[in-house]
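Need the bound structure for D-ribose, inputs here:
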Amino acid sequence: MKVAIGSDHAGFPLKENLREYLVTLGHDIEDVGTFSAELSVDYPDWSEKVTTRVATGGADRGVLICGTGIGMSIAANKVPGIYAALCTNEYTARMSRLHNASNILVLGARVTGLDIAREVTRVWFSTEAEAGRHLARRQKLMALEAANAKEATRPQSAQRGRVVVLEHPLIQHKLSIIRDKNTSVKDFRDLVQEIAGLMVYEISRNLPLTEIEVETPICVTKAFSLKGKKLAVVPVLRAGLGMVEGILRLIPNAKVGHIGLYRDPGTLQPVDYYCKLPNDIGERDIFVLDPMLATGGSASAAIAHIKQSGGRRISLVSMIAAPEGIEKVTTDHPEVDIFTAGLDRHLNDHGYIVPGLGDAGDRLFGTK
Ligand code: RB5
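Answer from helper R.:
Posting the output first, comments after.
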């Protein structure tokens, strides 16, 4: 597992010790500092380094150490996507993983002895999170986080996905128009592309950048370029197609995969009849496009297929989502982020989202 570890001066000796210990447990460690017990530093600075790694997928999990563990806990839990747990014994370590699925272990070097700290670390790293009622509670935490989020952040490969409602006024305005049953096919189609573009604009605001040099007509200057391979977008056929162009207008180098699914009339399970993904899908951030997240069956099956093909950093982009669909996807794929513009009430007996906008495929392609 990729682990980012950091401490302030008070936590430094324990950090040094645990870093070596984590290597013996087989983990790949990035030590972000601090590197001295003598120089007094501020714990929020070191918390930020570790939480950034975890929230953006640079590390699978993190370890933070200060004197009491309290400052680091408070600082870490300010960051969306971070669930930091101050653990003082083997029991709290186990529970913080089983029930809370914490992704940062916090230790207090002045209150927890070395042997206990090592045991806490061993247990915390070897315990998997439980689903069931604990997952439902964690979803409430995610919903709280989404409700309080000022802006969408992008932990594409963070340990646990989030449910983010994009409340940008332009998105909400356009969403209202496509909900209207009197909106024409042409306007509906145009607006879906615009909403998709605006959603991805919000979602991609924290994509990692790399510094480059550019020669302007005046002089050479430092500038920034998107780091690494670009995105892959994977529309779920057929309604997902309606979102592709709007995203490609913003990110023209994104690769496009396609997944087609139908529901087997006997088993009622989604079966994929077509799948073509970019060869390097494993190296890309992947946006699965499904405008309506209703039961979640197709979206979940599409994500499963992408994972089997090597996809790792997957987000689901749905204009409108029903609680049933969110439950399905977060249960099947707890690490996947779900971005939506509208969190609707429920599904009706025909499987349509209420209030929703009807059948997005029919409205996009004028088939009804
Ligand atoms: C540093 O003296 C100490 O305040 C810090 O390590 C931590 O305990 C804060 O919560």
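Comments: Confidence is low (pLDDT under 50) at residues 150-159. The two ends are 50 Å apart (CA to CA).
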